Each structure stands twice: as C-alpha cells, then as structure tokens.
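Repro:
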Amino acid sequence: MADHQKDLRVAIAGLGSIGAKIAAELDRGLEGLVLSAIAAREPDRHRSFLSGLRHSPAILPIEQLSEAADIVVECAPSGVLRSIVEPVLRRGKAAVVVSVGALLDNSDLIDLAKAHGGRIIVPTGALIGLDAVNAAAVGTIHSVKMVTRKPIDGLKGAPFIVQNGIDIDNLREPLMLFAGTAREAAKGFPANLNVAVALSLAGIGPDRTIVEIWADPTVTRNVHRIEVEADSARFSMGIENIPSENPKTGMITALSVIALLRKQRATLSIGT
C-alpha cells in the first residue's frame, strides 16, 4: 500500500482572536496537518491557552517559523507582515497572509516568492464569492464596487478617522466615512479593509476597485455588499459577519483560514 503524504507542518504567527482559533482547531486535529510552531509577541500572556493544547508546539521567534514548518499562517498586526513572510518565501515555502492590505506596501514579496519558489496564499476571509471574482477575471471585469458598514467599535482608532478628526462616538445614524479606491481604503483603515484588498487582487486591482466605508450605529455585524459587472456575468454578494472577540475582525476570518488549510490535504476539494 502507498504511504500517505507526510503531515503538513503548520506554524502560526500571532495568537490574537484569529491565530488562537486556528491553533486550537489544528490541535484538535485536522487530517494531514499538524501544528508545529507558534510565534507571539508576548508568549507569557498566552501561557494558559498554550498549556491547554494537547500537543505543545515550539514557541519560536517569527523569523525562525519557516524552519519548523511547511506553511506559515500570518495573523499578526499588519506592521510585522514583512518580517513574518519574507523568511518563509526565501525558503521556498508557503505563507498564508491574513493582513492582505499590507501586501500592497510590500508587493516586492510577490517577486521574492517567484524567485525562490515560495507561495503567498490569501484566504477568502470575511468575504464570499472570491472564486466567482477569480473566474470572472479570467474574462473581462468592467467594475467592482464594495460597500462596507461597520459598528462604531469596529472602526475606532482607524488612521483615516484619527487624521481627519471625525467623531463617530455619538452617531445616531449611518455616516459615510470614505469613498475611493481599495488601495486608499487599505491605508486609511488597515485593520478593517483586508477584505477590500483581497477582492481587488482577485479582480481588477486595488486602483480600479471602488470602496465605500460607513460607520453605522444601526448594525451589530460587519456588513459587506459587493457588485461586480463582467462580460461573463453580473453578480452581487452580501455578507453580514459576526465580530469576534476583536471587534475589528469577523469570526468567519479564522474559519476561512481553517477551511483553506484543510483544502491543502483534501482528497475532494470544492471551489476554485
């Protein structure tokens, strides 16, 4: 009988609401995958979580994760994206990037991946339908527009709001904060707009993808509505994501990474 493929070793950079959820799921057991290592800014803060895992992963500095894994999942603040992903790509390995907005400022990482045989994999995250956008982009897409509505707590502290002195604390009705390109949106709302950048990279790019961002005291979920016009189809997609413990992040983001990891070793794989 043929040997099964060796288990894929997965390392996680960042143990916030996304990283911890992925680590727990891997520890519980995903076929063909094993949690080999983690990196966290303050490992001591996560001691009780880590001691609750059945199998203890190695705790390493971020630059060493790629030595202990086949695939490294980045779910850390966007400012450290480069220090996590660059060593992975130099070793010709795969990086799953959650802070996809930061890829726009580090686009040379794509060339680095090409030069060393590495891969950058962006999970669907808090969106739906990226497979449809990918498919439409094989033909011609004419326009992509995304309207995001978020509860006040999920937007607090965003650079765009701080720089423009916008007071969102006492809103009684929805307020449009921003309308512009996905590239500009990612700069102004780095913790919120990974979805817009993922959508733009799947479709017509960050400078042609149009984004509106609303602060909305009437919603309790992160609401995204997307309209796509292409030569092959016209479609619209809507999703309302329940925030995780971190109000800036939807619960489905971690689940999306887990689904992507599962796909790496799946006998039957559904969707493009």
